[in-house]
């Protein structure tokens, strides 16, 4: 079978161009949305001393060479989050950022090594405010390209309906018949054996070396996600604290955190936090994540000490990261992320 034509060939570009023009219109509309609400758009550096400290995120590494020949490791950021929070510590109160971000080991219909993350932060405002933002942004994106429906493959979502708000524990019970909170103690510590038994009872695979986090993710991917955001968007909130490394615990229940994810058409679009501002607790979580990364992948990333110093001065805030390319896909009806990227990254696999 001949290789597909490159994205820059005229006939391929002609097929992609309507999606790309839709992308530009949506981005312009969202810039207007944030400007109209007194947000400042910021532009953060791509090169960072740490790409982030989540066990299953993989970064692109590089090296800085100084004028004297000295060398230091740097990384392409996986999110502008650390820099944005430093700006909150500096005194900014409402910021938004369209950032090119980079993630290794990721490529497929919904994943690309380089993509655009839209992040915005509200100092002194609750993460429930971000839920309202999400509803307005999805509706605006659809209106901008002249549609009333978000679509992905054979799934549809009405972005103008009130989103369904569902806790992770409720979703585990509804879609998998699993009592998730029973696998957590009163502090949020996890019980792997209890959750493993629950998965087996629900007919889900359990491997000997699966951690509690592995089991949690399997339920999310296999039972929850295919059922989220169908007909109307879903806000999946109150993640266990063990799955919310950058979020603070809820006041109501210390086992779960102020974290939500936004779903449409079974696709995760955004991830939001009531931001953790306890630098000591954040360090502990980062270090635990890196221990796990070393166990699974044989590598780890440094902690950004400058970020932790800023975190101790950062005001209470809420923040969210939205996959801008995925939003464009659902609004324009594209079936693959590379259809909405002006110049996709070259294929590297053989």
Automatic annotation (TrEMBL):
Domain of life: Bacteria
A Gene Ontology cellular-component term: cytosol
Pfam families cross-referenced by the UniProt entry: tRNA-synt_2
UniProt GO molecular function: ATP binding; lysine-tRNA ligase activity; tRNA binding
Keywords for the protein's UniProt record, in alphabetical order: ATP-binding, Ligase, Nucleotide-binding
One of the GO biological process terms: lysyl-tRNA aminoacylation
InterPro entries in the record: Aa-tRNA-synt_II, aa-tRNA-synth_II, aa-tRNA-synth_II/BPL/LPL, EpmA
Aminoacyl-transfer RNA synthetases class-II family profile domain span: 23-344
Keyword Ligase recorded: yes
Coiled coil start-end: none
Record protein name field: EF-P lysine aminoacylase GenX
Organism: Microvirga tunisiensis
């Amino acid at each position: 079978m001949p290789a597909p034509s490159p994205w820059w060939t005229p006939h391929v570009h002609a097929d992609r161009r309507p999606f790309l023009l839709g992308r530009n219109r949506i981005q312009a509309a969202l810039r207007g949305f944030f400007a109209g609400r007194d947000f400042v758009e910021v532009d953060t550096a791509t090169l960072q001393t740490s790409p982030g400290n989540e066990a299953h995120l993989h970064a692109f590494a590089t090296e800085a060479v100084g004028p004297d020949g000295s060398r230091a490791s740097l990384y392409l950021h996986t999110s502008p989050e650390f820099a944005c929070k430093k700006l909150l510590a500096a005194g900014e109160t409402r910021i938004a950022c369209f950032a090119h971000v980079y993630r290794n080991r990721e490529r497929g219909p919904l994943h690309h090594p380089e993509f655009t993350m839209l992040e915005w932060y509200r100092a002194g405002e609750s993460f429930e405010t971000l839920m309202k933002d999400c509803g307005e942004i999805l509706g605006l994106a659809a209106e901008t390209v002249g549609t009333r429906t978000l679509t992905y493959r054979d799934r549809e979502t009405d972005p103008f309906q009130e989103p369904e708000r569902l806790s992770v524990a409720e979703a585990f019970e509804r879609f998998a018949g699993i009592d998730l909170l029973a696998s957590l103690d009163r502090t949020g510590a996890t019980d792997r054996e209890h959750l493993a038994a629950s998965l087996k009872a629900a007919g889900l695979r359990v491997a000997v070396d699966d951690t509690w986090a592995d089991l949690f993710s399997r339920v999310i991917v296999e039972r929850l996600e295919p059922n989220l955001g169908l007909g109307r968007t879903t806000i999946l909130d109150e993640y266990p604290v063990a799955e919310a490394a950058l979020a603070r615990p809820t006041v109501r229940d210390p086992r779960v955190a102020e974290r939500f994810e936004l779903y449409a058409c079974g696709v995760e679009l955004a991830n939001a936090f009531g931001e953790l501002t306890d630098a000591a607790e954040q360090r502990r979580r980062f270090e635990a994540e890196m221990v796990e990364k070393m166990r699974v992948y044989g590598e780890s990333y440094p902690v950004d000490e400058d970020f932790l110093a800023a975190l101790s001065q950062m005001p209470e805030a809420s923040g969210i990261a939205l996959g801008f390319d995925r939003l464009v896909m659902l609004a324009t009806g594209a079936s693959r992320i590379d259809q909405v990227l002006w110049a996709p990254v070259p294929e590297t696999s053989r």
